[in-house]
Write a structure and sequence with these properties.
It holds the Pfam family Response_reg. The protein is an alpha/beta fold and 543 residues long. Helices cover 58% and strands 11% of the residues.
Length: 543
Amino acid sequence: MYRLLIVDDEDIITDGLYEVFNRYHPERLDVCKAYSAKEALGWMSRTRIDIVLTDIAMPGMNGLELSEEIQKYWPRCRVVFLTGHSEFEYAYRAIQMTNVRYVLKTEGYGKVIDTVQAVLDEMDRARHDSLLLEQSREQLLAYRFMAQGDYMRHLLQNSRVLCRDAGVMVREFGKLDIGLDPAQPVVLVLGRISYPEGRTYTERSEILSSVRMAWDTYFSDRARSMGIIDKHGDLFWFLQPSGRAEGRLDSHFIRFVEGTLEMIQESCLGSLGLTIGWTLSCEACRWECLTRQYERLRELQQLRIGSGGAIIVRDGFEPLDGLAGKESFADSQKAEVLRAYLESGRNEEFLQELEEVAGNALKMSGNVQLTIETYYTVALMLHSCIGRMGMHGRIDDAGQLMRLNDHPTMEAAFGYLKRVAESIFQSKQTQERDRASLIVDRICEYVEEHLSEDLSLVRLAEIHYFNPSYLSRFFKQEKGINLSDFIDKCRVKKAKEMLRDNDLKVREVALSVGYEAAHSFTRFFKKATGLTPQEYRDTLSLN
């Protein structure tokens, strides 16, 4: 949404233009008005102004001087000079200024509207062009790097599902320019840096860049790799052979990786004073098994490395904590995915993920404890959400969440979790609708009680702590009517009520509904009702 400010010391012109543009494009153009340059600068200090439609010849500060001040507040603001002066000096000075147009008052509303529309079109094009120009090679590379990292972290969350379709992965890798082959297995390496104490965020970032450079130096000849920072702040790499060894993920490549990690350790310790601990997979991993292998590496890192140390650990797929294979860890990654879906209100995704988690848990017939742990992990998550959202008493039977023995079977227990989750989502939707309705009701009440005051979109946004553009969209979405149209309806309604009192002058009625000039109110009232205020009053006396 763009914001237009109309400035003229003649109120009949200011009010007339305000009425014209206020209905011109309410969803695209927010209109404000000022009766002096000083008042216009007040608007400039309160909110972003995109276009100023101003007279040149005004008492105090004239339009040319105002335009110079405008550039200090909003350099991108466009100025349209609207004046009755056709002298060469005014026109010449206006034409010499950047982002400025010049229109004579004698050319009429049509010309003014066309000029403002042309400025809006120019701004749209300029915005589009600037976005294109900003996509320089350096920025594009930075974006691609972030997108690659986000995508690979996305795969780590749920590789069994996301890596199921090889064709999709090939397309995604191509779009993101990921230099790995999704059709070939991948070797995984997890690295933990022991940062010196007291290092700031930027200093840690510089250390990470140095480690990345060392990695590229040692691996670029023999391996294709991609590194990311995982959610715990550790380095995580994906590797595949390149050059002559491309396509051969044999035991020698694993030994090559392990040996090279030793060299990187020594290099970083000698040149940077950094200690790095590595954990790597003992064999290449299929893409759909990423999540499981990643979790195993993390567990090994925690168990073997502890707080750090220059150590290299290979995952030999031996059982951890007495459990074997697939059951060697709880599904913590799934739990985080579930929590994210719950917090963001993504109903379908949460229930689908919960169904899969429940199915996996119920298959763990050989390990009842993991099934119970899975149940309580989800139950605690739902219980916590109910507490934060203040839903106690609104979710049926929520008290059974932490009482697994209340359920006759594990199947029934997970079915209960699903019902509670559905109730939470339904309650959240109801709360959001109620909250939106309450906010809109407050805005409507304020408008009805302050019709004689400033009811600009900017002012209403300030009072209710909204962004002006968002407030406009939000009100239209909830009420089904533009905010400006609602204000006009309220003004017409109150004006009709006041006109029933013959002792009140039209001027007094106009002031009460926000019009300082009686002629502007008359024009507004007739456009809304088809009658002037006096004609409407006369019809009342006939009844």
